[in-house]
Amino acid sequence: MAKQNVGLRRRLVNWFMTGMAAVFSLIVLMPLFAIFIYLIYKGIGSIDLNFLTKLPQPVGEKGGGMANAIVGSGVILGIASAWGIPLGIGAGIYLAEFGTGKYAQLVRFTADVLNGVPSIVIGIAVYSLIVLRQGHFSALSGGVALGIMMVPTVARTTEEMLLMVPSNVREAALGLGIPQWRSTLSISVRTAASGIITGVMLAFARVAGETAPLMFTALGNDYWNSDPRQPTAALPLQIFNYAKSPYDEWHRQAWAAALVLIVLIFMAVTAVRIVAGRGQMRHSA
Amino acid sequence: MTATAENPAPRAPRRIVEIKVGPRPPERPDGERGARPRLVARRRRLPERSGWLSLVTETGFRWAMLGCSLAILGILVLFFEQLWVHSRLSLHKFGFAFFTGSDWDPIRGEFGALPFIYGTLVSSFLALVLAVPLAVGVAIFVTELCPRWLRTAISFTVELLAAIPSVIYGLWAFLVLCPLLRKYLQPWLAKSLGWTGLFSGPPFGIGMLAAGIVLAIMIIPIISSITREVLVAVPQHQREAVYALGATRWEMIRMAVLRNARVGILGAIILGLGRALGETMAVTMVIGNTPQISKSLFAPGYTMAAVIANEFSEATSDLHLSALVEIGLVLLLVTAAVNICARLLMWSITRDTPRSHG
């Protein structure tokens, strides 16, 4: 009799706890859907040609857009990618191909710590390193800040991907008398290319939406600016400034900008993956 | 004339780098190619390397890669140095009192960081309280319970949550979540749990509670994806052994899976904490930005990251700027310490458990 009861209790606990795990999963997925539905619902009505081609308008005037912020984000991200990605890949290659011993372990550790540094702190550090010395805010310093955020992620994924390349491939290359730098670049890196590109894209997507490091570096700008040494607008900054404002019109534009930002990030990621995928097929065929 | 891919003897001193299989079509004596398909072997050759040139490229490459890895160390050291130098003014003036003073008055030149430290700790702790059960629940559901087809769908969707920029979380929380909190959740909490003192005062929507909820949403993907990896790494025979003793599924999860994975889950939680401590934009938008210490979670607060975001570009006095940089320095030290703890934990378990590779 007692045995029966224990069995029942155990079964009830089992049902309850496994049920809770399922319910928790549902709860976790809810905000994601809520955010996406809201983004599309609020954003899609606000995106028109004006939004994509015009400059911001003063409060109270209808219309206006964020063309300068879209271009500015592109410029800043371009600068960040131009130095952050090669540096990260280089560090990853070092860790995977030459990295043994205490020094490599220290680099791995530092990369992980750097990865966890709050983005706002990166903003202050780059401000005092570059903006203070140059005397003005600039797209360049924004690019440096975002690039710093890319380096550890790119380095660690590159290392992981290179370590997955079987070592007999490397040995075969070296056995043919190919110098190590050539074997690393043409064989190891090429074999791991699709994984490395995925890692790079993840880093890019993460950095593309960053606001905090840009607040004291790129600063933002309401007008066109083609000089990377001057303050430059960026989409995340614009979203932040518009969302904080008390105006409905600006809130509407913030939603639109958020939708554009997400779509641009997704487009960049898919485009690169498609191109990379094709490259991969060509090389392996 | 007989030089084919199989027989490169006449040019033997050159080193072949890449051979694509396929014989080279023999040229006819009259020089015509004929109609046969051009299946040409492409041979790429390196020029004969002289000793010193190869030595230069080899060491050059090595040094370049070493330089890249040194840059990572350099960046972090430079960060510390910069923050240290620029916060010296405030460090000298206030000393340890900086962390215990609760006055933050740029006009009188009084700077005490206690309200910000309090706000950061409380909002992060609240986020952990909300996020840990949910994240671990998702991880358990995905690894142990759900059918295979649902598995990738759920983990992909949860990881999408991690790809949403912080500022968009903030936008959504500020314009959608906060009004909902004010209208529904906060009145209900005040009525049912108001006696605890945690849920008293006027419901603004924005405040510590909103910040905690947004932070929880943002750190769930990190905690759950690392926890999932740790759960998958628990050896299958552990599960089978517990089942063989007649355990129900939940008992199996509790005894075999969670017990084996507890250190890893702790590591995941600490990593999530590190993220929550430094999160800026979303928190700045919903926490209310008022430097005060209040027991009620409905009250607006302020965090260390948020005060930097709001005041750094508008600070006029050197002391104010230096105080903000000092907060940044503290944030850097704390997050670095938290991340080091998490890494050490994760490394200790990957070294201990026999984990089949791949």
Provide an overview of this structure.
The complex is a heterodimer of chains A (285) and B (358). In chain A, α1 crosses α11 (248-284), α5 (119-134) packs across α6 and α7 packs antiparallel against α8 (180-191). Chain A has 285 residues and is mainly alpha-helical. In chain A, 78% of the residues lie in helices and 0% in strands. By secondary structure, chain B is mainly alpha-helical. Chain B has three domains: 1-48, no CATH class; 51-86; 93-352, Orthogonal Bundle (MetI-like fold), CATH 1.10.3720.10. Chain B has twelve helices and four strands, in the order ββαααββααααααααα. Chain B has helices spanning 51-86, 88-94, 97-100, 114-145, 148-163, 166-193, 208-232, 236-244, 249-278, 281-286, 304-311, 318-352, and strands at residues 16-19, 43-45, 104-105, 110-111. Chain B has a two-stranded antiparallel sheet with strand order 1-2. Chain B has a two-stranded antiparallel sheet with strand order 3-4. The chains are: A mainly alpha (285), B mainly alpha (358). The interface between A and B is large, with 91 and 91 residues.
Q: Can you lay out the helices and strands and say which pair or pack?
A:
The complex is a heterodimer of chains A (285) and B (358).
Chain A: H1 2-43, H2 49-53, H3 67-98, H4 101-116, H5 119-134, H6 139-164, H7 167-175, H8 180-191, H9 193-208, H10 235-244, H11 248-284
Helix pairs in contact in A: 1-11, 3-6, 3-9, 3-10, 4-6, 5-6, 6-9, 7-8, 9-11, 10-11
Chain B: E1 16-19, E2 43-45, H1 51-86, H2 88-94, H3 97-100, E3 104-105, E4 110-111, H4 114-145, H5 148-163, H6 166-193, H7 208-232, H8 236-244, H9 249-278, H10 281-286, H11 304-311, H12 318-352
Antiparallel strand pairs in B: 1-2, 3-4
Helix pairs in contact in B: 1-12, 2-12, 4-7, 4-9, 4-11, 5-7, 7-9, 8-9, 9-12, 11-12
